[in-house]
């Protein structure tokens, strides 16, 4: 096992058995986490490659390049690993969470506005605690807004500052 | 003399040109088809009471006459992106297919880059490069918000961009030896953005035009070299100066193995000029498209398409 070099992008090993860098998540573990957590089809991520840069930041990439690759970014940030509870990113949840069937909390219009503004809210929820996919209804369908951390009967908005917005209330 | 007076001898209708340059531009958004459809965006804007009207040339480009593009749910979902109407043109002219390998040499802040990704159905490889690290963070932010996953972001000088880090010349899987297409949306003197940036002329000088033209030639040459035979390169600027447009094409036609091809443009414009300030250009630069603000009530623009020698 070698140490993680946080300055470059390395492709994830396919499985834990092929791991060469200590503590690195495998492709299979990353996909399983998303599929298990949100009930997605297991084929959802077949055509993507997965990369680590920094301490546990996983990127999802629709293409492939020889690993390691010296770039500023490959694809989009997807999942934070190397911590007890893995955390999906807001952008990945928006991109891939539309088909989720588990751990999805649907907010009413007022709650959704407050969540997007970064406020913590107390919605009705009797499911699991932890990171939830937070959604609302727009243009006739459910659409993911981002990630919330549900603990102690409270939903904490973890929408990053650059994605928060204070939208006007609808009449 | 303002920079605009410099070009009045080239313009078909000087009064209309001047009047258009003095009018502000409406807010325009592009629908991001990676994350949604035109119909859902229109529904969502309707239910928020935000007026919108389609442009007459592209259903996915909407004018928002009374609103700023940023404060609404479609923006929060990454369904729309504020992008000037005419700047939608170069990606459409490049017209990449899903699975292609495409280089965007001057990508930040990423409006055209993310449009390329959408045209590729977010498949294949899109390399978004910019030499300015500060602007690169805007590119990264926009690409993430719009859900782009097929982009590799690089921070190099496009004039000597190396494919080695992408595996060129190796037999490693996934190595990139050449691109199928390249977009050079070049840094320029931005004369055509005067409707959006009324202070665009404050820093204008002929010396700057000449110096930026040198950079443009270097980038376009490298883009032709990095594209496979039979592939295409689109060159665009938001400026009127022939020094930065036709003269750049003329230089690259001479220096590299490539030729200009006709553009099937959905916007009105006039052919590239073959003569300027006592200099004659290769007659094929007339295949390029000059768009003046009064032609389509947009900003000013220049766009050309090159095919790399087979």
Strand order of the largest sheet of chain A: 1-2-3-5-6
What would the average pLDDT of chain A be, to the nearest integer? 95
Quick one: overall form of chain A? elongated
Radius of gyration of chain B: 19 Å
Second CATH tier, the architecture of the largest domain in chain B? 3-Layer(aba) Sandwich
The separation of the N and C termini of chain B measures 45 Å
Domain count of chain B, please report it: 2
Number of helices of chain B: 9
DSSP helical segment count of chain A: 3
Give the averaged pLDDT of chain B, no decimals.
95
Strand content of chain B: 15-25%
Question: Proportion of β residues of chain A?
Answer: 25-35%
Helix content of chain B: 25-40%
Number of strands of chain A: 10
Order of helices and strands of chain A: EHEEEEEHEHEEE
Q: What oligomeric state best describes the polypeptide chains here?
A: heterodimer
**What is the CATH superfamily label of the largest domain in chain B?**
Vaccinia Virus protein VP39
Largest sheet of chain A: 5 strands, antiparallel
